[in-house]
Design goal:
Helix content is 40%, strand content 27%. The protein has 342 residues and is α+β, with helices and mostly antiparallel strands. The protein has one domain: Ribosomal Protein S5, domain 2, CATH 3.30.230.10. Strands 1, 2, 3, 4, 5, 6, 7, 8 and 13 form a 9-stranded mixed sheet that branches. A 4-stranded antiparallel sheet has the order 10-11-9-12. Strand 3 and strand 4 form a beta hairpin. Helix 2 packs parallel to helix 3, helix 4 runs antiparallel to helix 5 and helix 7 packs antiparallel against helix 8. The longest helix is centred in the C-terminal third of the chain and has 20 residues. The structure holds (R)-mevalonate.
Amino acid sequence: MCKKEYEAEARERIMGEAEVLVAASAPGKCILFGEHAVVYGQPAVAVAIEQRLSISATKAASWSVDGSALDPDRHPHITMLKDRWLSDSEPMALHISGDIPRASGLGSSAALSAAVGAAMHRLANPSKGIDRDGLSAVAHRAEAHAQQGRASPMDASTSVEGGVVVLSDRVEGAAKHLYTRQLTTPEGKRSWEVHHLAPPESEVFLVLGNTGVFAPTSKQVAMVADALAAEPTRMREIEAIGTVARRGLAALIDGNYEAVGHAMSENHLLLRNLGVSSPELEALIQAAMPSSLGAKLTGAGGGGCMVALTRDPKQTSEAIELAGGRTLISRIGNEGVRIERG
Ligand code: MEV
């Protein structure tokens, strides 16, 4: 379904339900540079994609999510947000829809936290706007909980803020500084400076190619932590990803998309050496290369999605599909979490 059809369908569904109390939506994300290394404090860049997750809440006799009873084990993010904002409220039925594939590296769990959090915050504080700082902090905590204490604020901040989000170990002059995030991970205390960036406009597209292989982020993140614990000198590989991410960021600020694509491909080689690619990802990346400016895995890897930066999304998309991937197309930088109704 294309973006316009999806939005029209979502609006129709929401408007057609008389008893909807609140509805919200949040975008997925695509990491251009720096996944995994960002967990260790290296710089990274992510963009909010056109694909979104929507949530609506209706009155009900007991708490439920898409017809199943709300269960803290199955729905840890939603339970955490409900306990924070709606612990004493009447029960509700939550309905989730959207076009972000699950567990595929496109930030579906952070989008869920962002949309549910925004909806619950609105119900608890009807006269207040979205508190993006507070919401992304809670969504980051939910990600950290799901990833055994190792998570950067990348996914949460990108889904909440939208646009292009830059994380760094320092305040970056060329971007708007939003806030500092800290987390104590099993390997020590981490700190990230979170920024918003408005890169120059250009006719470039992201083609996301889904391998269809389910790849939980927590497993991939733990695998990297184990590899670094077994061989601490491999931290140099993490630092090398940071160096490439910094080069990619400079190219993005300049609007030099040829150099952005080059840095993406370089970043991919480092991720492959780190052991987080897969044969399926490699096949889609290889297929995309001839028609794109650069390509890499995006997210935690091991399956999930790759991304190609291209000026010819049709040709790149067809090449990826011929190699067995399912594609989505997005422009760079889309609106963050928003209230749709209520
Ligand atoms: C997952 O989308 C990105 C990782 O870098 C994990 C994180 O940043 O928390 C793999």
